[in-house]
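Aim 2 progress update. The chain analyzed this quarter is reproduced below.
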Amino acid sequence: IELDTGKIYDYSFDMKPILSDGFVSIETEPKGASVYLGSKYLGDTPLENIPVPSGVNRIRIIKEDHVDYFE
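Predicted structure tokens:
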């Protein structure tokens, strides 16, 4: 912005918040369950401090011969 001496300038800006990632840690018993965030595979449990985007997310935890878990 270039300003001239003696002049008054008014500016207005619409500020938007920065949405930062959160983190999730997941443990299961028994260990070794597959964890998905939406359709993205995150890994097998136990998981620690996995970055997760802010907002509404769906986590699915599955393991063969066990009931699937959705949150």
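The mean pLDDT is 90. The first strand starts at residue 22 and ends at 26. These observations will guide the mutagenesis experiments scheduled for the next reporting period.
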